[in-house]
Amino acid sequence: MTTSAAFLDExxxxxxxxxxxxxxxxxxxxxxxxxxxFTGRACAMASPGSTGELAELVRLCAAHGVPIVPQGxxxxxxxxxxxxxxxxxxxxxxxxxxxxxEIDGEARRVTCEAGVVLQTLHEAxxxxxxxxxxxxxxxxxxxxxxxxxxxxxxxQVLRHGSMRALVxxxxxxxxxxxxxxxxxxxxKDNRGFDLKQLLIGSEGTLGIVTAATxxxxxxxxxxxxxxxxxxxxxAARALLLHCEDMAGDALEGFEVMPRASLEAxxxxxxxxxxxxxxxxxxxALIEVVADRSTVATLRERCEAMMAEAFEKGLLxxxxxxxxxxxxxxxxxxxxxxxxxxxxxxxxxxxxxxVPVEKMPEFVEATAPMIEAEWPGTEAVAFxxxxxxxVHYHIIAPDVADGLAWQQNEGKAISRRVHDLVTQWGGSxxxxxxxxxxxxxxxxxxxxxxxLSMLRAVKHALDPQGLxxxxxLV
Length: 473
Fold this sequence. Notes:
By secondary structure, the protein is α+β, with helices and mostly antiparallel strands. It contains 17 helices and 18 strands. The strands form four sheets. The protein has a seven-stranded antiparallel β-sheet, sandwiched between helices. It has a five-stranded antiparallel β-sheet with strand order 5-6-10-8-9. Strands 1-2-4-3 form a four-stranded mixed β-sheet. Helix 9 packs across helix 11 (about 300-310) and helix 9 runs antiparallel to helix 14 (about 360-375). The longest helix is centred in the last third of the chain and has 22 residues, at about 400-425. The radius of gyration is 23 Å and the shape is globular.
């Protein structure tokens, strides 16, 4: 198919010069995914300024059979926002739709458009003494629409859940141009399916998210971040359970990383320092927060929690943040793991999950297997221990052609890792979606009944297959 000039002319007339461009220089930066793995082509880039303009564009695309590839901050990890190489699709940028429509402090919710950047959202609600309890390393570029479309997680999933748990209402444009809206949330509503949940995590294949009503919480009055040295991942799991028992809902984050990851970060950030004097096999990053009613006892509770952990032999050493600057410095070490590993050289990266209680055993059992089957590689696991999500990276040996290694050995390694994850009852995608990166693996390993249901829903809501084709299913 070649996109017709008549379609492009009509789209330009409806959206205006700000809403549609065919300039290849303006489009080019958005045609490659964040990791640089996928590059496509597009007949134009549309940037509607409102839900109404987008609905018009979608109706026009449906009439002409033109595919649409929605894109937020283009910070996805699975190539889910990159068009294919045909050049037939319209690349849909939602970055102009960036209004925060309402912050309701009494109801503790915010309604904002899909193009709002996560960091901007954080700042807007913090000015009202509120917070949106989801954060991640890419908060400066990730958008609300992209976070919803991939059901993003982040470092606070342990207490607050992923986007699926934080979206109270949704607005989206469907494949035929109709606008679906449930922005006003109800605590109880039993009128059939919770249709917004179909769109959350659907990667733009069922509808294009244009706005959402999100859950807010009171601002944190104080937080304590603890950096702990631990002997094993199994000990980290025991420490997590101990912290959950003693801190309860005040425990917001529990991240783990091995010694190799910390060493890579310290090399990557020359000004950074290890929070502990000695070296440990594993490290845990623990965040405990307090609201105004509990702030007076927060530090005392954390000290008691750590003292008892020492007595039980759950950790070897620990440092507790004495200021907000030190808390941020601890978190910077964790958030710098991915760029530090990229600096080390080529690797195959896996965003996987296993049942929470099996995560330590999974890593300890499978990492030596991968390293033995591919000599010279190094298996590195880090991530959110509390929800079973592990970033499982296999770093290449010293090779002359890293790209060739990734395309050949890397694919075989990923297939093996995904087989192991499936055997352990886990998922090949924990928080970054399927996109085009894992589509074939989902088809190979997914439950046939579940896949059949996914395809049936896709066909029912997008019979022409125009919404983000080639992604997910």
